[in-house]
Write a structure and sequence with these properties.
Layout lengths: L1 H17 L5 H15 L3 H23 L2 H17 L14 H26 L4 H25 L7 H14 L3 H15 L21 H16 L9 H33 L3 H4 L2
Length: 279
């Protein structure tokens, strides 16, 4: 029953993407972005997105090498042992039920959402240093959210296949809603691959024109904070602090929910339930 309940939850969650219809503004935005990038020299465009991809790859690798991440891995294993004393490493977690793995993942999600909320609030205070590191911190924090969820479901994120897959999940989760159904379908196609399991067959290119909407939203958030940082209430710029905290929290909630549903689906598929219950 547990697997069927999770499968039903995934189906209900997917409807927000399958039933989504872009509005006129979104269509105009897509047309404007496409026209803008068509006028850019292809060499410069390729270089720009290549550097952006490299930044994400290096950020992923950096997070994996931190003691903070190693401590988090040990915490996940410790929680896993509460349910099964035989668990000694991350890969052993797959013996647990989807409910228990989801519980472990949600513990990590709650912690990262809190960090995201706090970081956004600090950025809202208007300090130049905090403005400068806001975007790198947000990307790193949300990459880490995907990694922690993947670890919670028993997948080692330092494996090349898992690294590429988690980066793909992060990319799909940060796309505009109107583009996420296609990205989801491509992810599911990848994990259903029977020809070369654990060899990532998709493209290693992550970012493109369509992905830039999220960074632009972060820019608009920063502009809004700058406009209202002098609106002080009881000594604090409450409006800008609130905007920074809420925007960052919403992004992390969207990324973590997408990643959780993906790794739940993958678990059900590997256990033989995904094909029967999830479409």
């Amino acid at each position: 029953m547990s697997d069927r309940k999770v499968s039903k939850d995934i189906q209900l969650w997917k409807r927000q993407y399958t039933d989504y219809q872009p509005n006129d503004f979104e269509r105009m935005y897509d047309a404007w972005v496409n026209q803008t990038f068509e006028n850019i020299d292809p060499r410069w465009k390729k270089l720009f997105f290549s550097n952006l991809d490299n930044y994400l790859f290096h950020t992923h690798a950096f997070i994996q090498g931190t003691s903070f991440q190693n401590d988090a891995r040990e915490r996940i294993i410790t929680v896993g042992r509460v349910f099964d004393s035989k668990i000694e490493q991350i890969s052993d977690l797959d013996v647990l039920s989807v409910d228990r793995l989801t519980y472990i993942a949600q513990q990590q999600i709650s912690r990262i959402r809190l960090y995201s909320f706090a970081q956004g609030g600090l950025t809202g205070t208007g300090g130049l240093l905090l403005f400068g590191i806001d975007f790198p911190l947000m990307m790193g924090m949300n990459l880490r959210a995907v990694q922690m969820i993947g670890l919670s479901f028993g997948h080692e994120m330092n494996h090349p296949y898992e690294m590429m897959l988690s980066l793909r999940v992060f990319h799909a989760a940060t796309l505009p809603k109107r583009m996420q159904k296609k990205a989801w379908d491509e992810l599911i196609k990848e994990i259903r691959n029977d020809r070369h399991p654990y060899v990532f067959e998709g493209t290693d290119e992550l970012t493109n024109e369509s992905w830039l909407e999220q960074p632009l939203k972060q820019v608009f958030k920063s502009l809004f904070i700058m406009m209202f940082r002098k609106k002080v209430i009881q000594g604090l710029p409450l409006v800008s602090v609130g905007v920074g905290a809420v925007v960052n929290y919403r992004l992390t909630r969207r990324v973590s929910e997408f990643a959780l549903r993906f790794y739940q689906y993958r678990y059900l598929l590997e256990q033989g339930g995904g094909e029967n219950h999830v479409r």
